[in-house]
Every structure is written in C-alpha cells, then in structure tokens.
Amino acid sequence: MKRVPFHYFRGPYRQTQLGESCRAIDDLHQQGKIERFGMSNLRNSEVEECCDVCKSNGWILPTVYLLRKLGISFYAYYPLAGGFFSRTIEQHRKQPAGGRFDQINFIKDMFVNDTSLKLYDMPTEACEKQSVSLKEATLRYMMHNSALGPENGVILGSSSVERMEENPVACEGGVLPESAVSAFESLWTQHTEAGHGPQYCI
C-alpha cells in the first residue's frame, strides 16, 4: 500500500510542539502518502491549536475528530467500551490475565471500574426486556440513537474473526426502544457524575 486513507495523530508527544507534528503530517500528505489527517486523544484546546497552525501555514487540515464547530468528523472507537458491553458481570469480576489490555491499565480502568460494575445491571435488564443482547443494543445505540451524524463513523474492532462478523450485523438492527436508550444514557450520566468522565474529548 503506497497511500493510506487516514493518518491518525493519536495523542500528542508533549515534548514536541504541535506545530512540528502538524508540519510532518503535511509533509506526508504532500508526498501523496496520506489522504486525510485525523486526530485522537487530544484536548479541545490542542485540537483548536492544531487547526490554527495548519490554517496559518496552509497545511492539510484535520478532518477526522469530534468538533462540529470546526467542521471535523468524529469516528467513534471502542464502541463496546473495550469489551465492557460484550462480557458478563462475572467475566468482568474475574478477568483472566493475558488479555490485550493488561499492559494499558488506564484504558481498562476507564471502562471497567467500581462505578461501571455497579451500573452494569441497568442496561442489561432493559435489554433483556426487549429480548436483545447488551452487545447488540450497544452497537445499535451507537449507530442509530447517539449524537453521531451521517458525517461521522464507528470503528469496529474485535478479538476474533467470529465477533468481527457479528458486529456489522448487530449494527443493522435499527433504532432502540426508548426504555433501552434511557438506560444507556442514565448509565453514562451516573458514571460521569461519579468522576469517570473522559479526560480528553474523544
């Protein structure tokens, strides 16, 4: 592959000025190696700084992130919250060693913590009443009930080929019933109020 559709600036290396990173990405674009400039794990202020620097220098602008006011798309990743919505409560409480998040505890702790485990039953019970799995309901919420618009996207990942084949099918299920939507949104509100809101605008 000589050219990639996206190049993600996946979190700043703060010993380097943002302008230097943006210049390097523009060089890749000028060489025809990337089509679009995306950003991930940057603060609001850093996103705006990148946009200002790129505009003032005539460099490629980022077009894949979350800020509508800057005309930037948001591609949601970890739609199943790192597996939180695809495992049972028992699996979360007895997680085996050797998982892919073992070496990156800050990601694991972001999704699986005391608060999220206490709230787990809320969406689970709402989904059971609608005869839909928690995993399917989560993906349907992301695709059809969340704040994502047609200019946005969802990045699906998986730990196995079988699950990767299941996920797109689940996304096609359509809009969720209001009771399930309310359960997801209540979980998020309570999780955030307990101090587990995102530290970055992702």
Automatic annotation (TrEMBL):
Keyword Oxidoreductase applies: yes
Q: Spell out the SUPFAM superfamilies in the cross-references.
A: NAD(P)-linked oxidoreductase
Arranged from A to Z, the UniProt key words for this protein are: Oxidoreductase
The UniProt entry, under InterPro entries, shows:
AKR_Detox_Biosynth, NAD(P)_OxRdtase_dom_sf, NADP_OxRdtase_dom
Q: Pinpoint the NADP-dependent oxidoreductase domain residues.
A: 12-188
Superkingdom field: Eukaryota
> Which Gene3D superfamilies does this UniProt record tie to the protein?
NADP-dependent oxidoreductase domain
Q: Which GO terms describe its molecular function?
A: oxidoreductase activity
The name this protein carries in UniProt is: NADP-dependent oxidoreductase domain-containing protein
